[in-house]
Amino acid sequence: QYTTIYTIHCFRGALLSLIWCHIFTSRREILTRIESVILGIVTSLSKDEAPVLALPKRSSWASVSFDTAVGLQMSSGCSVTTIRSDCPASATKFAQIVKIISVIYRLVQSNSYATKRDIYYNNTQLFGSQRTVDTIVDDISCLLKIPRRSLHVLATSKGLISGHLCYLEEDGTRINCHSSSAAVAVSSNIVGIRNIVSSAKFIMIVEKDATFQRLLDDHFCTKLSPCIIITGKGVPDVNSRLMVRKLWDVLQIPIFALVDADPHGIEIMCIYKYGSVVSPAMPVIPVLRIIQCSLLRVPEEALIPLSKKDEGKLNSLLKRPYLTSQPDWQKEMELMQQSKVKAEIQSLAAIAPDFLTSIYLPNKLRYGGWV
């Protein structure tokens, strides 16, 4: 039933899969770009000048553009931040960037991988904190104009996955996600996953870990029909997003996002589909549909007034470059703006404790109750 609904998207999905194969920058290209940066530093030193690095600013929507094939990406004319080696305020960061670039160069050259945690513990005095390494890896990705996943630096996954799914990790470990009471941590190396086998009819992204655990407890993956559920525990990490895209490429089955009917839930769904301003250059997730609490059907006592922060988030979302291609999403947000209320998935428990898994989701999935 679900596959029939999405048959028209299969050709587009196959085309996007080809694009995905080329998104991972070649090792030679990565090495060449790093060598270009180092050559610039050496050239400055040879002229007795202080080396300078120009980092694209990643915190502004003015710095990114939207492409329907690859999602959000850094704009060619984006503003930059100058990191000088002779300035006390930026000399330490300059040294940190050069150090991590040298680590990445060795990793790519030897076709090996390291985690961001490995890099931090290799020189804790230089970096000071794990967060510094995390930020600089993203900065280097933008500096080199190379997707972060191509830098051979892995991040520890925070996501969980469960359902009708088996696959092999790069080291040959067989992962079986088919358990009704437990979940498997999303792999830290999505590129290395192979031999994916699944009888799932659809994939459901779940915004919150608490809701994800409720679905597990209620044996959702086997009750309605075989499916796969995945959560990034709120704002998703890169690996959770890449895992969803990997499953789409291989299985070509519908993807749904179960999120709160609030600005935060909608933004999380947008991050899965298009990427984020601080981590652009992610492949888009095709045919993603949103399932959320309908503000028109949730009991009035369960509705929550929008805060000023919520209203600001809504205004920001409505200005996103990809919203013009999602008129139904726009309508949902405009309804939220007009009503000035929001609703959480947990509010459905006000109707009945098992309303979400026994009635709400089955009806939404059977009769097309998604946006």
Give the arrangement of secondary structure elements:
Layout: H1 2-5, H2 10-23, H3 27-46, E1 52-56, E2 64-67, E3 71-74, E4 80-84, H4 91-110, E5 114-115, H5 116-122, H6 124-127, H7 130-144, E6 153-154, E7 160-163, E8 166-168, E9 174-176, E10 184-185, E11 194-197, E12 203-206, H8 209-217, H9 220-223, E13 228-231, H10 238-251, E14 255-259, H11 263-274, E15 288-292, E16 304-305, H12 308-318, H13 327-339, E17 341-342, H14 355-367
Parallel strand pairs: 5-6, 12-13, 12-14, 14-15
Antiparallel strand pairs: 1-4, 2-3, 7-10, 7-13, 8-9, 8-11, 16-17
Helix pairs in contact: 3-4, 4-7, 5-7, 11-12
Explain this structure to me?
The chain is of the alpha/beta class and 371 residues long. The protein folds into two domains: 2-21 and 158-367, 3-Layer(aba) Sandwich (Dna Topoisomerase Vi A Subunit, Chain: A, domain 2), CATH 3.40.1360; 27-146, Winged helix-like DNA-binding domain superfamily/Winged helix DNA-binding domain (Arc Repressor Mutant, subunit A). It is 43% helix and 16% strand. The chain contains 14 helices and 17 strands. The chain has helices spanning 2-5, 10-23, 27-46, 91-110, 116-122, 124-127, 130-144, 209-217, 220-223, 238-251, 263-274, 308-318, 327-339, 355-367, and strands spanning 52-56, 64-67, 71-74, 80-84, 114-115, 153-154, 160-163, 166-168, 174-176, 184-185, 194-197, 203-206, 228-231, 255-259, 288-292, 304-305, 341-342. The strands form six sheets. Strands 10-7-13-12-14-15 form a six-stranded mixed sheet. Helix 11 links the parallel strand 14 and strand 15. The model is unreliable at 1-23 (pLDDT under 50). It is found in: Nucleus. GO terms for molecular function: ATP binding; DNA binding; DNA topoisomerase type II (double strand cut, ATP-hydrolyzing) activity; metal ion binding. Residues 202-365 form the Topoisomerase 6 subunit A/Spo11 TOPRIM domain. Its EC number is 5.6.2.2. Its main location: nucleus.
